[in-house]
From TrEMBL:
It holds the Pfam family Fe-ADH_2. GO terms for molecular function: metal ion binding; oxidoreductase activity, acting on CH-OH group of donors. This is Glycerol-1-phosphate dehydrogenase. PANTHER family: GLYCEROL DEHYDROGENASE (PTHR43616), GLYCEROL DEHYDROGENASE 1 (PTHR43616:SF5). Keywords: Cytoplasm, Lipid biosynthesis, Lipid metabolism, Metal-binding, NAD, NADP, Oxidoreductase, Phospholipid biosynthesis, Phospholipid metabolism. It comes from the Bacteria. CDD domains: G1PDH. The keyword Secreted does not apply. GO terms for biological process: phospholipid biosynthetic process. InterPro entries: G1PDH, Glycerol_DH.
Length: 402
């Protein structure tokens, strides 16, 4: 990471934002070409007797098989839990997968190892939290920023909910494994980072208008992670070691920012709510799922366009004309902070620039490329804000601007 764990924790302890910042329980983060071997050494140092590996059929081939073989000659007993796909062939972090994992994980387990990307980590994070045992992260693709966070986004009765559970105690990311990840998963990781352009604006806006918790340090750490990816987009697009390492570091640092805050405010705004809405619709219609980062890579440019065209340009420039609509206090607040809001939007690339970035990493840049039609896009823009109790600009536009 650009910053070390020790440095980030020290900065968090010195922070005067007024919010309670979580301690970082992560003991080590290792991104190396022998990370799996180092994980075995780490497990021995912890004197664990029994561990469970949570995998799916793809992540077992990516890293689980090798890790299982490394553990065979050690005095550590291990079991492998293969999370089964649904009827569409997708592994989903839902109540079915959670119950399967809880049934198959030994009751005397000392630690659980998540071997996979976002979904496997969400299942493992929740199960380890409920079983009151630590979990260890073994990412198999640089595809999401949730590896180091506390949040477990789960589908419960068809609705996407994020449960604050626990962070891993260690991360072992094997660069040889990450380099072999499909390019679409690398593009998804970049898309998840690009979402910070709009999520940070939403977070600042929610703090400004609705007094939602905000921390400038966490904002800065998230911005740094985003900028590191944008500055190195060509290296990431090439999917070679340096680019993969840069992307993985950025994703981990973004997750730590969420961990410190105890919520996903800095990393998840209207663009994520729109993505969750699409995901739920696909599940409802029993359609094959689309990678999380692919969805937010597309939704970010859509949200940027909506925010610019319906909030920043017309509303902010004609505040007095909207007095009856918004109310005196809101008008006064926005008027007083007009320059600050302008600065937020000046740092936001245009929708076409955002789409171009996704194209450069060979990711989808339009809803149509993901099988999402205009009707679902329009419906999501009107309804997705209900999925989270957050005062995003998307919520503001739907509830206060007609």
């Amino acid at each position: 990471m650009r910053r070390t764990l020790i440095e980030i924790e020290a900065l968090a302890k010195q922070c005067h934002c007024g919010n309670n910042h979580n301690d970082i329980p992560i003991e080590t983060i290792m991104i190396s070409d022998d990370a799996l071997q180092q994980l075995v050494i780490y497990l021995q140092s912890k004197k664990y007797q029994t561990v469970a590996l949570i995998v799916d059929q793809h992540t077992f081939e990516a890293a689980g098989r090798q890790l299982s073989a490394l553990l065979q000659g050690e005095p550590i007993r291990h079991t492998v839990c293969f999370i089964q796909p649904n009827e569409n062939g997708d592994v989903i972090a839902d109540e079915v997968s959670i119950v399967q994992a809880l049934l198959e994980i030994p009751q005397d387990v000392d630690a659980i190892v998540a071997v996979g990307s976002g979904t496997i980590h969400d299942i493992t994070r929740f199960c380890s939290y409920k079983m009151k045992v630590p979990f260890i992260s073994v990412p198999t693709a640089p595809s999401v920023d949730g590896f180091t966070s506390m949040g477990a986004p789960l589908i419960i009765r068809g609705v996407k909910k994020t449960i604050q559970a626990q962070a891993p105690i260690a991360v072992f990311a094997d660069i040889n494994v990450l380099k072999q990840a499909p390019k679409r998963m690398i593009a998804a990781g970049f898309g998840d980072m690009m979402a910070k352009y709009t999520s940070l604006i939403d977070w600042r806006f929610g703090h400004l208008v609705a007094s939602e918790p905000y921390c400038p340090l966490v904002d800065k750490i998230t911005q740094e992670s985003l900028q590191e990816c944008v500055n190195n987009i060509e290296k990431i697009a090439a999917a070679e070691e340096e680019g993969v390492r840069i992307l993985m570091n950025a994703l981990l640092q973004s997750g730590i920012a969420m961990l410190i805050m105890g919520q996903s405010y800095p990393a998840s705004g209207g663009e994520h709510h729109l993505s969750h809405y699409w995901e739920m619709e696909f599940l409802r219609k029993k359609r094959p799922q689309v990678l999380h980062g692919a969805k937010v890579g597309v939704s970010t440019s859509l949200i940027a366009e909506v925010y610019t065209n319906h909030f920043f340009i017309p509303l902010l420039n004609d505040l007095k004309e909207n007095k009856a609509l918004l109310g005196h206090k809101t008008i006064e607040l926005l008027e007083r902070n007009r320059q600050k809001i302008k600065e937020w939007f000046q740092s936001l690339p245009s929708p076409s620039e955002l789409r171009s970035m996704m194209e450069r990493v060979e990711g989808a840049c339009t809803p149509e490329q993901l099988g999402i039609d205009q009707e679902l896009v329009d419906r999501g823009l009107k309804e997705a804000y209900h999925l989270r109790d957050r005062f995003t600009i998307l919520r503001f536009l739907n509830e206060f601007v007609k």
